[in-house]
């Protein structure tokens, strides 16, 4: 039975998915999706109409997967949205928003940013090594503090590693998630071949999208990989347990806060619900002296609003969602928000400008690098936000959101 038939048969319309969904507010989304997915085009020139109710726009889904994990029947809304996005792509072609993440398109936003600002230059690019770090487009070209800090932590632990960085080594997962599967199908095997050619035993990814691509999507499409795939938090924890990564700096004193320093760990949806990683980053943070994690489990974790293309199409909505993270962190008396995804980090920083939050925002690797005793990693938040909005303006004809310019 296909997923649509299974959904129609087994969904008892209990409404639990809607009660937790940060985007849709009524079960009419399900009947609209059933209708759209069941209908065939009358002719090539007359595609099936998308849901007309603006509250049921399929672009509103953050792909956070909260509905999937909440549904007692393992159904939810997100999988229907993914099918609808794929169908829309087949009928209407690739949209400008989907081209943004396509590494083969000149309208790729990371390529655009890379033309204005040099991507991070990592040492050991192209070398054979047991460990390869794969920062992905975001940590190479846009949220560079993530890529640079990860390299500093690996250096502090004495790891010999090689790097595959930049747009040349996009994983293809963002385009894939937006309903455009072609880039990942073209690039996936090439990435695997390159890692195999370098003789790697371990691939370390930063971005949850890259992790999901290598850990889940590639093996399902291309077969077993022949090397281990770890997210940075998993690898950092392993290095801590092996005694290779140690923390010399008292972060409470460094940040001039009282002991213990309270951290709010932001679970990235695509790492937590989509890939099951939530313990390792918390355990890595708890290895730093005098800190405590305010939210010890991912229960009730909040989507940052960045994913599923919502930040691109509905920027205000996306940033309002991210502001909820500041609220949750403040309510738990936290001093610092720790992120573990370049996209989450950018959205949380940007929403903090609007909500005038008092909280500091650090990437996991950035925080751990500081705790190792390293000097701060160079970072310019305003430039990051301005660059990404400017790139969207250049790549999309209908994007005009850039309140921080000038
Ligand atoms: S939670 Fe599952 S069963 Fe309940 S309405 Fe949503 S999809 Fe249907
Ligand atoms: S994935 Fe998230 S935003 Fe999308 S329908 Fe499910 S709960 Fe709502």
Textual characterization of the structure:
- This is Iron-sulfur-binding oxidoreductase FadF.
- InterPro entries: 4Fe4S_Fe-S-bd, 4Fe4S_Fe_S_CS, Cys_rich_dom, HdrC_iron-sulfur_subunit, Helical_ferredxn.
- Its EC number is 1.-.-.-.
- This protein is α/β, with parallel strands linked by helices.
- It folds into three domains: 3-93, no CATH class; 117-241, Rossmann fold (3-Layer(aba) Sandwich); 251-395, Rossmann fold (3-Layer(aba) Sandwich), CATH 3.40.50.
- The protein has helices at 3-10, 16-20, 28-38, 66-70, 78-92, 96-99, 109-116, 136-142, 144-156, 173-177, 182-197, 208-222, 232-241, 251-254, 269-272, 279-286, 310-313, 315-331, 342-355, 364-371, 381-395, and strands at 131-135, 161-165, 202-205, 228-231, 261-265, 291-293, 336-339, 360-363.
- The strands form two sheets. Strands 2-1-3-4 form a four-stranded parallel beta sheet. Strands 6-5-7-8 form a four-stranded parallel beta sheet.
- Strand 3 (202-205), helix 12 (208-222) and strand 4 (228-231) form a beta-alpha-beta unit.
- Helix 18 crosses helix 19.
- The chain is globular and about 65 Å long.
- The mean pLDDT is 93.
- Bound molecules: iron/sulfur cluster (2 copies).
- One iron/sulfur cluster binds at residues 11-17, 71, 73, 75-76.
């Amino acid at each position: 039975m296909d997923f649509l038939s299974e959904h129609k048969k087994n969904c008892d319309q209990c409404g639990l998915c809607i009660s937790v969904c940060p985007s849709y507010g009524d079960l009419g989304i399900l009947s609209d999706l059933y209708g759209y997915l069941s209908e065939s085009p009358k002719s090539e020139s007359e595609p099936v109409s998308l849901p007309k109710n603006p509250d049921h726009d399929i672009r509103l889904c953050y792909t956070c997967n909260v509905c999937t994990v909440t549904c007692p029947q393992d159904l939810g809304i997100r999988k229907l949205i993914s099918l609808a996005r794929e169908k829309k792509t087949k009928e209407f072609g690739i949209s400008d928003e989907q081209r943004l993440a396509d590494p083969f398109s000149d309208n790729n936003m990371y390529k655009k940013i890379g033309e204005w600002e040099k991507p991070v230059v990592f040492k050991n690019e192209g070398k054979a090594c047991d460990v390869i770090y794969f920062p992905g487009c975001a940590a190479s070209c846009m949220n560079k503090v993530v890529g640079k800090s990860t390299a500093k932590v690996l250096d502090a632990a004495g790891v010999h590693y090689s790097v595959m960085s930049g747009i040349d080594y996009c994983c293809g997962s963002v385009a894939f998630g937006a309903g455009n599967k072609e880039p990942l199908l073209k690039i996936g095997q090439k990435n695997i071949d390159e890692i195999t050619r370098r003789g790697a035993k371990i691939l370390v990814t930063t971005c949850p999208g890259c992790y999901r691509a290598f850990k889940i999507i590639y093996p399902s499409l291309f077969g077993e990989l022949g090397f281990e795939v770890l997210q940075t938090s998993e690898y950092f924890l392993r290095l801590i347990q092996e005694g290779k990564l140690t923390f010399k700096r008292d972060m409470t004193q460094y940040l001039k806060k009282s002991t213990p320093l309270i951290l709010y760990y932001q679970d990235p949806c695509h790492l937590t619900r989509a890939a099951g990683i939530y313990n390792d980053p918390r355990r890595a943070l708890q290895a730093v002296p005098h800190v405590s994690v305010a939210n010890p489990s991912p229960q009730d974790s909040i989507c940052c609003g960045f994913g599923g293309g919502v930040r691109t199409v509905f920027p205000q909505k996306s940033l309002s969602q991210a502001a909820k993270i500041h609220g949750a962190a403040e309510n738990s008396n936290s001093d610092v928000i720790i992120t573990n995804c370049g996209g989450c980090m950018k959205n949380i920083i940007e929403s903090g400008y609007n909500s005038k939050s008092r909280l500091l925002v650090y990437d996991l690797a950035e925080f751990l690098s500081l705790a190792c005793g390293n000097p701060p990693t160079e970072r310019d938040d305003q430039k990051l936000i301005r660059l990404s909005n400017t790139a969207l303006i250049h790549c999309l004809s209908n994007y005009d959101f850039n309140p921080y310019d000038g």
